[in-house]
Every structure is written in C-alpha cells, then in structure tokens.
C-alpha cells in the first residue's frame, strides 16, 4: 500500500515541531517508535540521511539505531550512519538467534562498532522486544576494553535494579539513557543522565518540566508530572498525528492503526490534562 511507504517530506516539519513545540533537541532515529525493524536497509538509510541532513542546523544530536538480525546489515548501516553525519549509533541484540551469553552479545556489538569506530556507540537494551534474558549490567561490564567507542546505553526495561547496577559499573562520561516513560522518575533517582521515549514526541514540554522539578528537588511536582505522563503511552502514531497535526500515516503491518475516533478522543483528553498550554 502507498500509505505504508516512508514519506521523507515530513521529516523537516517533524523536526520543527519537536524543537519549537516540544523543546526536544536530540533524537533517536529508526528505533522502536520509528518501527526500524520493520523497514528495509535502504529505507533506514534514506531516513537516517534525511534526519541528519535536515537536523544538522536544528538538532543538537542525532543517534541512529543500526541494529538488525543480520550482522552484515548492522555493519552496513553503521558505516552509512558515519558517512551521513550521525552523532552516534545504537544497537539492540539480535532477537531470533539470541546470544547465549553476555560475551557473545559483546562480540556482536564489537563487530558492528568496528564498522564505524569514530562514532559514539550505545547498546540499546530492550528485553521486552528482543526476548533477551541477559542483564544489561553484565553486558556493559568491561565493554570499553573491546569497544573503545562505547559511550553508554539506552535502557528500556523496568528492572531498575539492573539499571542501577549499570550506573554503578559505568564511567561518568557514559550516557545512561532511560527508555520506559512511565518509570522515568524512578530511573532519575537511580542516576539516569537522560531519557529516550515515545511520548516525548508530544509531551516533550511536560518531560522537560519533570526533569527540571527533579533537578530542583521538587519531588511532589515531579511525581505529579510522572503520573500525568503515564496515561498516554499507547497508540503513539495516531495520537502524535492528532496532537501535532502532522500526517504521519499508519504503522506498517503487522501493526494495525488505532481507529481515528479513539485517537481523537485520547488527544482531546490529553489537551484537557495539559490545559491551555501549547502542545
């Protein structure tokens, strides 16, 4: 279907919306929200090129996810990300033939990182999608010995004990990016240095307020904001269309679109929660 094809013309207005309306200046491209694993290698390259090109003067950082089931495809995307001007690359674990040990996964990550050794490299830990049972803290321990470009992880798991152990083992110059929107406050308490999230697309201002409240020691306000964020964690694509006005289109099969009336109803409730604040 024509409507499941990527539409590069929307990237620039998408960037403008994130920067001007949501206070978002750093992006993570071709990840879970972007359905990166449902796209072809060529599509992922074209999207990475457009985000890097259009975001060059507007965004502070563009990290491109290059993880694939195939090591060769991941290496190809890593090299391409370096050529196209990305600020970093991230990789998830293969999820069909899964690594059976932390060492096996580190070897896979090492081979991908070696294809673009000049780029900061991040491990993307998302066990709910990969089915991986290995702990992130075991995977990142000593990883700089084999991956000198390693600069941190995107941790998308509710296991805050594992996340805390990652932080305790990691050098201060690594980024500890948390990826479960509804538990962001808990991750901040554990020492997260930043966050990557689906809802930040249309709730970026609220998340920035939560971060500020936490930094200022106002935990009551931070908790209030965290609870308000937790209501809007489903059907991102249609909700983002409703809130932003950008025609981002439907998801790609096997995902199915949310009925328009339901998305509109959720968007209206979101507007009520945020009041008259520009979203």
UniProtKB/TrEMBL annotation:
The keyword Cytoplasm applies. Pathway: Amino-sugar metabolism; N-acetylneuraminate degradation. Keywords: Carbohydrate metabolism, Cytoplasm, Lyase, Schiff base. It holds the Pfam family DHDPS. Its main location: cytoplasm. It catalyses: aceneuramate = aldehydo-N-acetyl-D-mannosamine + pyruvate. SMART domains: DHDPS. Its EC number is 4.1.3.3. Pyruvate binds at residues 33, 196. It is an enzyme of class 4 (lyase). It comes from the Eukaryota. The active site is at 124 (proton donor/acceptor), 154 (schiff-base intermediate with substrate). It is found in: Cytoplasm. GO terms for molecular function: N-acetylneuraminate lyase activity. InterPro entries: Aldolase_TIM (IPR013785), DapA-like (IPR002220). One of its GO terms (cellular component) is cytoplasm. Belongs to the DapA family. NanA subfamily. Homotetramer. This is N-acetylneuraminate lyase. It comes from Scleropages formosus (Asian bonytongue). The gene is npl.
């Amino acid at each position: 279907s024509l409507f499941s094809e990527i539409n590069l013309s929307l990237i620039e207005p998408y960037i403008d919306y994130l920067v001007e309306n949501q206070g978002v200046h750093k992006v993570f491209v071709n990840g879970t929200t972007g359905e990166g694993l449902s796209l072809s290698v060529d599509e992922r390259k074209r999207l990475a090129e457009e985000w890097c090109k259009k975001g060059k003067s507007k965004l502070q950082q563009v990290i491109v996810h290059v993880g694939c089931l195939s090591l060769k495809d991941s290496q190809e995307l890593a090299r391409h990300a370096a050529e196209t001007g990305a600020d970093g690359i991230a990789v998830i674990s293969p999820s069909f033939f899964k690594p059976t040990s932390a060492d096996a996964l580190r070897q896979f990550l090492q081979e991908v990182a070696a294809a673009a050794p000049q780029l900061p490299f991040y491990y993307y830990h998302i066990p709910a999608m990969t089915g991986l049972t290995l702990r992130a803290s075991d995977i990142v321990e000593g990883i700089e010995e084999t991956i000198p470009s390693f600069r941190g992880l995107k941790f998308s798991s509710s296991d805050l004990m594992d996340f805390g152990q990652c932080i305790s083992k990691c050098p201060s110059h690594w980024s500890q990016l948390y990826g479960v929107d509804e538990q962001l406050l808990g991750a901040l308490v554990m020492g997260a240095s930043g966050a990557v999230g689906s809802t930040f697309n249309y709730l970026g201002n609220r998340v920035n307020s939560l971060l500020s409240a936490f930094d200022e020691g106002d935990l009551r306000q931070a908790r209030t904001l965290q609870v308000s964020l937790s209501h809007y964690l489903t059907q991102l694509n249609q909700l983002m269309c409703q809130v932003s006005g950008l025609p981002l289109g439907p998801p790609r099969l096997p995902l199915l679109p949310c009925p328009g009336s339901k998305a509109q109803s959720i968007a209206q409730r979101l507007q009520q929660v945020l009041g008259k604040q520009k979203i």
